[in-house]
Amino acid sequence: MRSAKVTYRLIILIIALVFGIVFSMPSFLQTQGGSKISLGLDLQGGLHMLLGVETHEAIDSKIKSIAGSINYYAKKEDVLIDKFKIRQDSVEFTLLDSDEAPKIDAALKEIVGLEIQKDGLKYTIMLTQEERAATVEYAIAQAVETIRNRLDQFGLAEPTVARQGEDKILVELPGIKTQEDEQRARDLIAKAAHLQLMAVDDKRQDQANTMSAVQAESYGDIIYPDAKNEQFKYVVKNIPVLDGSMLTDAKVAFSQQNNQPIINFSLNSEGARIFGDFTGANVGKRLAIVLDGKVYSAPVINERIGGGSGQISGGFSVEEAHDVAIALRSGALLAPVKVLEKRSVGPSLGAESIQKSMTALAGAAMFIVVFMMIYYGMSGVFANIALVANIIILVAVMALFGATLTLPGMAGIVLTIGMAVDANVIINERIREFLREGANLKTSVKKGYENAMSAIVDANITTLITVIALYAYGTGPVKGFAVTMSIGILISMLTAILGTHGFFDLFTDKIERSGNTRLWFGYRRDK
Amino acid sequence: MQIFTKARVYDFMKLKIPSVIISAILFFGSIFLLATKGLNYGIDFSGGTLIQLRYDEKAPLDKIRDAFSANEMLKNASVTEFGSDREVVVRFSGSSSDIGTDIGAVAKELLKDTGNVEIRRVDIVGPKVGGELREKALMAILISFGAVLIYIALRFEWRFALAAVISEIHDVVITLGAISLFAIDVNLDTLAAVLTVLGYSLNDTIIIFDRIRESITTSKRNDINGIINESVSATLSRTILTSGSTFIVVFILYMFGGDMINGFSFILMVGVLIGTFSSVYTAFPFLVWLKFSVDEYRAKLGEKAKLKKERERERAMYEKGVV
């Protein structure tokens, strides 16, 4: 057999390389089609936020809305109740007439998840454990959904909104360029958009500026400031007539009197009915329109308002009105969110990072390529080809998996290169050893690979174990590093061990004939 | 080209005591540093805020401090140059969880009279998240130690596993000591660097272990010291090549990688040195002191090989149809 032998090893390498080239091209050339490797926010700039959901607020507002329903029912059925109060996480009231107990019991039965304690005619209503858990769960899921909807309407490229852990939400906004953009995006997320229509307590309104919060609570009232003038306060009934959950639409319009932007909203049928009943029964009284704890307007009810639509006016700028409308449309946040972690990287810094690390990477790769060639001759060239293949395939696989390249990920690539080269160093050193001992070329290559194998496999597997632990427990950049490393290690097994062996298979006869160890293995054999 | 032209056996084990003494000095020195000076936790782990600024000209540090003194949160901030005299990093321990206000914008407003300034990066980590990140990081390290211990014990022998993990702990502690000494901020990317050191030195150790395992079956020698000397010598040129080239690569990263990976690559440089030293010098004395017995291990490997041969023979017989 004098001809060159193409073995399965070489074929696998070639297939892998073709695969690598095809799928890495979109990433390298930044063409439109095909999946590309995505750059982490540290490399392209953008905003990363970890939000915590204040779930206890969701429970509070659930309690409030239950109180609202009980209140509505009692009024409608003419059940007389007294001392109607919302405590920390319970609703309390006392029936005046024990004959009406069955009526109220039946109504309470309609509401799921209640734990009712009765002490004579005094009712204390709380949520059951399961209902509390479900409320929290729903609040988080709803917050994720709401924030996603809002950011989608904001018109950003590929925002990520994902739940993380028990009660956290990860928001990533690549491509936020200016501080103004960032501010707007954050405002949009932060906006609770909690709309409530509440009756003004006309009896006590004139004490608004002197009354304390505790006092107000004892009357079943709550004090909210005016949206335009924080000094001016309103005393409103703590139990809302309606809240934003019954909203179906919200649009920006312009007031005919002064051409100011206003927001028109419409209610669903249940909301429309409650709204109609309330306005019908309270003509001459004032209704406060409360958004996120501020009173936007408190018009006097002139007549029954049917049809279920209303408006919020009150000194919005056009942009503000627009964002409030988005927030109202996409739903209120049942629970407010707060920032647990925020990282924003300016686009110029990202570009600089990528440029610098690319330079370093290219420098490092160049050094290794030249070194391997000088030290190991043709074997070094094989190793270099495998190395380049390794990088190309790594990029292709990461692009296909939609993995993100981060700054530590870049370091991961450097280390992968190191380990891939190490594998070839081990193999070549082994081959030299056998040649020194006087074995012929064919056997030296064969035994070199065989003997190096266990060392390389054991070393790679232990590294892989470490890296997997990092992935499982790491966060952010550590994860990015782990992903790059583990993919790189697996690929290097393919290219550095299998691939280079394929080249030797191809050239063994040729090497044997030439007997030139200097050319093929980079050193002169002692005669 | 080649470094070692002749296959010589160097007596590494002769330097067993001095090398262990050096290791011990470094190790306990590091522990002393960690206990007294401690680690400089960056905001990732301690919580806090970091703002990176860039000026068009040289940054006026005093003016910046003066401007910040007006703000409750920023008045105690540390203001330092970062990489060049145009870049500044501002750090303080507070963090605002209010999503609506942006400390970056606040800083920019305060600094508007100090020159043309660009806000390049704002990182805010709440105290709860910082604690969680620290916990997770520690878990990651402990779990990987455990898993590696088990893997090596299965593939080699428990004494190898123990020696490997001891040398790992040695490397990590000394690397942390260097981080403490040079007051490098411990952040998530610093952590990634420490873990890389861990992976790298483990890699080194395993490769020499593998050679020892092989030598035990092929060498005529019976004493563990001799076998270790043979194996370390045989892998020496590989160790020098790989460590040398890795060191140079990391050095290139350090020189040209920019400030963002400066700390990262510095730690790797320290780690490569320590890792190489420990895999050549530190790991093996423990193997000896743990009373590793060549004969016992040889017998065990022999047993394994016999079992394998037996199985192969059975298979061959089965395939020939003679059962």
Automatic annotation (TrEMBL), chain A:
Domain Protein translocase subunit SecDF P1: 140-202
Biological process terms in GO annotation: intracellular protein transmembrane transport; protein targeting; protein transport by the Sec complex
Keyword Transport attached: yes
UniProt membrane topology term: Multi-pass membrane protein
Cell compartments where the protein resides: Cell membrane
GO MF annotation, one: protein-transporting ATPase activity
Transmembrane region(s): 7-29, 358-376, 452-474, 480-504
Gene3D superfamilies: 3.30.1360.200, 3.30.70.3400, Multidrug efflux transporter AcrB transmembrane domain
All residue ranges annotated as the SecDF P1 head subdomain domain in the record: 224-335
InterPro entries attached to this UniProt entry: Acrflvin-R, SecD, SecD/SecF_arch_bac, SecD_1st, SecD_SecF_C, SecD_SecF_C_bact, SecDF_P1_head
Segments forming domain Protein export membrane protein SecD/SecF C-terminal: 338-498
CC terms in the record's Gene Ontology section: plasma membrane
UniProt keywords, alphabetically: Cell inner membrane, Cell membrane, Membrane, Protein transport, Translocation, Transmembrane, Transmembrane helix, Transport
Subunit structure: Forms a complex with SecF. Part of the essential Sec protein translocation apparatus which comprises SecA, SecYEG and auxiliary proteins SecDF. Other proteins may also be involved.
Family under the similarity heading: Belongs to the SecD/SecF family. SecD subfamily.
Entry-linked HAMAP family: SecD_B
Function description: Part of the Sec protein translocase complex. Interacts with the SecYEG preprotein conducting channel. SecDF uses the proton motive force (PMF) to complete protein translocation after the ATP-dependent function of SecA.
Name this polypeptide is given: Protein translocase subunit SecD
Gene that produces this protein: secD
UniProtKB/TrEMBL annotation, chain B:
Domain Protein export membrane protein SecD/SecF C-terminal stretches: 108-291
Domain of life: Bacteria
GO molecular function: protein-transporting ATPase activity
Coiled coil ranges: none
Gene3D superfamilies: Multidrug efflux transporter AcrB transmembrane domain (1.20.1640.10)
GO process annotations (BP): intracellular protein transmembrane transport; protein targeting; protein transport by the Sec complex
Keyword Phosphoprotein: no
Any one of the GO CC terms: plasma membrane
Keyword Metal-binding: no
Keyword terms: Cell membrane, Membrane, Protein transport, Translocation, Transmembrane, Transmembrane helix, Transport
Bilayer topology term: Multi-pass membrane protein
Subcellular location(s) of the protein: Cell membrane
Listed transmembrane segments: 20-39, 137-154, 239-257, 263-290
Cited InterPro entries: SecD/SecF_arch_bac, SecD/SecF_bac, SecD/SecF_CS, SecD_SecF_C, SecD_SecF_C_bact, SecF_bac
Function text: Part of the Sec protein translocase complex. Interacts with the SecYEG preprotein conducting channel. SecDF uses the proton motive force (PMF) to complete protein translocation after the ATP-dependent function of SecA.
Record note on quaternary structure: Forms a complex with SecD. Part of the essential Sec protein translocation apparatus which comprises SecA, SecYEG and auxiliary proteins SecDF. Other proteins may also be involved.
Entry's family note: Belongs to the SecD/SecF family. SecF subfamily.
UniProt protein name: Protein-export membrane protein SecF
Lineage: Bacteria, Pseudomonadati, Campylobacterota, Epsilonproteobacteria, Campylobacterales
Name of the gene this protein is made from: secF
